[in-house]
């Protein structure tokens, strides 16, 4: 059995489907039964980088399953600020808990934790590398809505350079056999080439023009331009409002088009979109806590 | 004038690094020179020799019986594909073409400044070769893919 959830790259398509199937089971479970599954278990949530929804949804997922949570939401008040190495933090905290959920600004941190710890490790985001739990909840959301993943036209919009949710989701969609991708990004935030396999079966359509792609899309995957990832703030100012969708722009969209966003949003989705049938980012966030319960159950070896 | 002086002399015993792409020999010389154990060894270096295979090649002859595998691996990372010949009594008795290993442990520095291997002390780097022809390697930690030639070595001579 897989001990950790570190990268979409590690998961076979069958395993991804298992997570989605398990989330569907969790979704239909009565709340009263749910609280018995992880009673007495402790989740260590180590957030070396700030996060609101990932951390809160993991904590809520653990509580909903009857478990407990320890951890920190930023490193200022911990021994990390005294210069403790990451490995030492892991070796210490593994004595206090049953599972790790780790967010770190350095890429590969969760991988290292998985290697040195006997406990299961969940990567809750490592720099601009991977965010597998977000990807699983994105796939769960898409699959739930469209009853399929393959064959959909999914357009990625915004920061395709630094957005780990985009990188993770892309990798997963390729495992599902998706070969056609649409990328909408300003030049400075284009998807790096190393995410585009040289294999001829893939078609990557890249444009800077959002209006062009809306009429033919099934899913618009929006991203926030992440200020904190820019080495140069002037560069951020140039592109920060590159893509903003509003209700008017979506008038040309197919009826079934859904707008997803890993959240938080800044300006990229106008509030008037919230009242349209296209807005799917809040249901997506709700699916997050369901998927995270499924992940905790699976990695802690609970059979349903 | 003795014509033989125009050629690299044959060595009786030692190591020949052959089939070095023209101009790359200097990189290997730098590696060799960085290892203290080779500082006082007689070395002959040839640039731009005519080669039937490559057109032009560089060539290095080292008068030493044994070349430390660590040095060979180091060379294989910087200039892959060269031939290493062991010479005994003027004859080639062993010959290998060296390529980087499929998994390269703690010999390369990750090119991603945000990789955990750049900050965590005592953490060995691990790279997996993903494309031998184009010399592409993937960091086991940050999952970035790099061209082998673009990465610095981490080897301590």
Question: How are the elements arranged and paired?
Answer:
The complex is a heterodimer of chains A (304) and B (157).
Chain A: H1 13-27, H2 31-34, E1 42-47, H3 53-64, E2 68-72, H4 86-93, E3 99-104, H5 109-116, E4 121-126, H6 132-146, E5 154-157, H7 164-175, E6 180-184, E7 203-207, H8 210-213, E8 219-222, H9 233-239, E9 258-260, H10 281-299
Parallel strand pairs in A: 1-2, 1-3, 3-4, 5-6, 5-8, 6-7, 8-9
Helix pairs in contact in A: 1-6, 1-10, 3-10, 4-5, 6-7, 6-10
Chain B: E1 14-21, H1 25-34, E2 43-51, E3 55-62, H2 69-78, E4 83-88, E5 91-97, E6 103-105, E7 126-131, E8 136-139, E9 145-147
Antiparallel strand pairs in B: 1-3, 1-4, 2-3, 4-5, 6-7, 7-8, 8-9
SS class of chain B:
mainly beta
Q: Termini distance of chain A?
A: 15 Å
Average pLDDT of chain A, rounded to a whole number, is: 93
Order of helices and strands of chain A: HHEHEHEHEHEHEEHEHEH
As a percent range, the share of helical residues of chain A equals 25-40%
Beta content of chain B:
25-35%
Number of continuous helical runs of chain A: 10
Indicate the low-confidence ranges of chain A by residue numbers: none
Radius of gyration of chain B over all CA atoms, rounded: 17 Å
Helix content percent band of chain B: 10-25%
Q: What is the H/E string of chain B? A: EHEEHEEEEEE
What are the low-pLDDT stretches of chain B, counting only 5+ consecutive residues below 50?
none
Largest interface: A-B, 19 and 17 residues
**Biggest sheet of chain B, in brief?**
5 strands, antiparallel
């Amino acid at each position: 059995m897989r001990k950790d959830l570190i990268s979409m790259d590690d998961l076979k398509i069958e395993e991804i489907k298992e997570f989605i199937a398990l989330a569907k089971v969790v979704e239909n479970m009565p709340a009263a039964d749910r609280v018995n599954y992880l009673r007495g278990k402790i989740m260590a949530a180590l957030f070396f980088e700030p996060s609101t929804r990932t951390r809160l949804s993991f904590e809520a997922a653990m509580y909903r399953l009857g478990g407990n949570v320890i951890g920190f939401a930023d490193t200022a008040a911990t021994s990390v600020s005294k210069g403790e190495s990451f490995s030492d933090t892991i070796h210490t905290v593994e004595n206090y808990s049953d599972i790790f959920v780790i967010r770190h600004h350095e890429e590969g941190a969760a991988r290292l934790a998985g290697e040195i710890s006997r406990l299961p490790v969940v990567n809750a985001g490592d720099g601009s590398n991977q965010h597998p739990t977000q990807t699983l909840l994105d796939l769960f959301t898409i699959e739930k809505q469209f009853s399929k993943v393959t064959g959909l036209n999914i357009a990625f919009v915004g920061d395709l350079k630094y957005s780990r949710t985009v990188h993770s989701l892309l990798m997963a969609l390729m495992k599902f056999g998706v070969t056609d991708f649409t990328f909408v990004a300003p030049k400075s935030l284009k998807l790096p080439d190393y995410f585009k396999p040289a294999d001829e079966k893939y078609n990557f359509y890249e444009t800077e023009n959002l209006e062009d792609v809306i009429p033919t899309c099934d899913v618009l995957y929006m991203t926030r331009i992440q200020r904190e990832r820019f080495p140069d703030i002037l560069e951020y100012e140039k592109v920060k409002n590159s893509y903003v969708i509003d209700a008017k722009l979506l008038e040309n969209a197919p009826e079934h088009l859904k707008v997803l966003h890993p959240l938080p949003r800044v300006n990229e989705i106008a509030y008037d979109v919230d009242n349209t049938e296209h807005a799917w980012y809040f249901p997506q966030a709700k699916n997050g806590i369901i998927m995270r319960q499924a992940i905790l159950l699976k990695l802690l070896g609970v059979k349903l | 004038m003795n014509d033989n002086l125009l050629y690299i002399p044959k060595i009786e015993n030692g190591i020949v690094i052959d089939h070095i792409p023209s101009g790359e020999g200097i990189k290997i010389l730098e590696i060799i020179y960085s290892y203290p154990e080779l500082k006082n060894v007689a070395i002959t270096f040839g640039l731009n020799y005519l080669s039937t295979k490559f057109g032009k090649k560089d060539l290095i002859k080292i008068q030493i019986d044994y070349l430390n595998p660590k040095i060979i691996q180091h060379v294989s990372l910087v200039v892959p594909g060269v031939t290493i010949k062991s010479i005994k009594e003027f004859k080639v008795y062993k010959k290998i073409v060296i390529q980087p290993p499929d998994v390269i442990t703690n010999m390369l520095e990750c090119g991603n400044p945000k990789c955990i291997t750049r900050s965590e002390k005592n953490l060995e780097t691990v790279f997996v070769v993903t494309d031998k022809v184009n010399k592409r390697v993937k960091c086991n930690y940050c999952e970035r893919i790099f061209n082998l030639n673009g990465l610095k070595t981490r080897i301590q001579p």
